[in-house]
């Protein structure tokens, strides 16, 4: 593959908006504002909305998944007959059968079960949200395969943009999806440039390691610095870990002394991850041996279970601020976490919101012009 950009960003940062801006930047318009050309095949929340359920509310028997055939995403669907390609991916995750009716743009699912020693097929089933996510994802992978193979129906694709493909999936499937995606994109002869964004730290780390072994790629941490801007931080050769980023932010917060009650929730979350790693049954084992450990444990329980909304934050009093600092300092001294430079403020390259798509495109070694705001709804 030519180029790959992989970046992590928390929910609410603007990953989906960025993917749409990137897609819009690759469109060409005629004098009347109609789209005449495009260059980005994308997967995001809008892609998932192209699939919707008809649950047959009247009879509750003939359930089917509808495809929005008006979208360019399904160009050439009837002629290409994607069943075999989708099935080759889908069977890696679930034991389900599906049938695509290309004339009506619908999909029906079935499953084989054993009843009294005999195999029976249950037709027209409503699959789970996770299974639906996997089917849509495999549908997308099948189209990606066509684009990589330079099928005429998708010859317009120059970029693949993937945003958070693993909603509703457990960790086992998240790892499997990451590995399969890497195998597909590193297919010999793939000339498409790719951007992948996610809020899922495990998914990010698996992709980071899988791609790192096979292709040259760029990895970033994207986060919102202020209402009008972002920080795009290069992770270099340092893997990104969510708990390290959280601890780094908590350190900065204690230095600024702007400590709010809900920060106890963040600290408790890190302690829970640490306890899980060491096999502890309770988080108090993480602060065992510290001076005032009983007080620390009670404070963590009290403040992290309160109803402290991040939308109406309340700054702590001086005594509680001091208590928070003592817990954090004691925890960090006990476990000696290493904080790589990717989390330092000086490493961040701030970009304004309208320019963030340009920053990602530039990372792909080819700057894509950003469309004007009035074109975003075209």
UniProtKB/TrEMBL annotation:
UniProt-listed InterPro entries: CR006_AAA (IPR026866), P-loop_NTPase (IPR027417)
Domain Protein CR006 P-loop: 113-316
Domain of life: Bacteria
Name of protein: AAA family ATPase
């Amino acid at each position: 593959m030519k180029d790959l950009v992989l970046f992590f960003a928390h929910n609410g940062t603007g990953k989906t908006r960025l993917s749409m801006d990137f897609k819009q930047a690759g469109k060409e318009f005629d004098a009347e504002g109609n789209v005449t050309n495009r260059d980005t095949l994308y997967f995001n929340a809008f892609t998932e909305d192209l699939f919707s359920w008809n649950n047959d509310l009247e009879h509750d028997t003939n359930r089917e998944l509808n495809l929005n055939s008006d979208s360019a995403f399904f160009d050439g669907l009837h002629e290409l007959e994607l069943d075999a390609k989708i099935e080759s991916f889908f069977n890696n995750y679930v034991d389900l059968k599906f049938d695509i009716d290309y004339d009506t743009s619908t999909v029906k699912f079935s499953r084989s079960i054993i009843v009294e020693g005999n195999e029976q097929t249950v037709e027209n089933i409503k699959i789970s949200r996770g299974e639906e996510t996997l089917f849509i994802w495999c549908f997308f992978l099948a189209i990606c395969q066509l684009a990589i193979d330079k099928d005429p129906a998708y010859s317009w694709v120059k970029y693949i943009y993937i945003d958070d493909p693993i909603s509703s999936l457990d960790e086992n499937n998240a790892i499997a999806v990451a590995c399969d995606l890497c195998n597909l994109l590193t297919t010999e002869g793939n000339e498409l440039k790719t951007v992948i964004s996610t809020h899922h730290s495990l998914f990010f780390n698996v992709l980071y390691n899988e791609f790192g072994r096979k292709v040259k790629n760029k990895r970033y941490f994207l986060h919102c610095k202020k209402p009008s801007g972002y920080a795009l931080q290069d992770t270099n050769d340092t893997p990104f870990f969510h708990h390290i980023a959280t601890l780094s932010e908590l350190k900065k917060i204690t230095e600024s002394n702007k400590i709010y009650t809900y920060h106890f929730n963040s600290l408790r979350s890190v302690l829970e991850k640490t306890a899980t790693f060491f096999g502890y049954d309770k988080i108090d084992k993480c602060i065992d041996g510290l001076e005032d450990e009983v007080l620390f444990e009670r404070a963590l329980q009290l403040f992290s279970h309160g109803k402290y909304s991040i939308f109406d934050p309340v700054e702590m009093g001086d005594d509680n601020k001091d208590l928070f600092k003592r817990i954090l300092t004691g925890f960090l001294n006990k476990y000696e976490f290493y904080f790589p430079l990717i989390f330092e403020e000086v490493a961040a390259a701030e970009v304004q919101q309208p320019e963030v798509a340009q920053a990602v495109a530039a990372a792909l070694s080819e700057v894509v012009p950003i469309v004007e705001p009035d074109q975003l709804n075209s």
